[in-house]
Design goal:
0% strand; mainly alpha; single chain; 148 residues; 60% helix
Length: 148
């Protein structure tokens, strides 16, 4: 799908988008996805483990001790879900921890999907996974340390 998006940009133009250019574009996109995944994971861990002393402590929607109640009508599980799927499929719209954990997973899956395609073209791309992990870990560490 991402490949189609890159290809569509060149339809009707004189530019030619060959396989090597697409692989480089995928590599760059995978690096950005890994960085965004690391940042989202860092934010979710700060919310979960250090909310009281974090940069988010003045915003109650980040407070895990009370934001979990956003899933339920009037904050009461006995009254049922606030909206259909709010305690399951759409939980990411009810509190910030679930939102950032979902973003972490989506970006991580995107990065590895792109890299899977790249490794199908050449196993030399396998070495890039080390760099991808370093980008993820660095983004995680920076966001985690800077936000609390």
């Amino acid at each position: 799908m991402v490949g189609m998006a890159f290809s569509v940009a060149f339809i009707g133009s004189n530019n030619h988008f060959d396989c090597n250019e697409m692989l480089i574009a995928f590599a760059i996109l995978a690096v950005f996805f890994a960085a965004f995944s690391g940042i989202a994971r860092g934010v979710s861990n700060v919310i979960q483990f250090h909310y009281e002393i974090s940069a988010f402590n003045d915003n109650p929607s980040y407070n895990p001790k009370i934001s979990w109640m956003n899933k339920w009508k009037n904050g009461d599980p006995k009254q049922g879900e606030r909206f259909w799927g709010s305690s399951r499929w759409f939980v990411l719209f009810t509190d910030k921890w679930h939102l950032y954990e979902s973003l972490h997973r989506v970006f991580l899956i995107g990065a590895f999907t792109l890299y899977g395609y790249m490794m199908a073209q050449s196993l030399w791309w396998l070495f890039g996974l080390i760099a991808l992990y370093v980008v993820f870990a660095t983004a995680f560490h920076l966001s985690y340390e800077l936000l609390y």
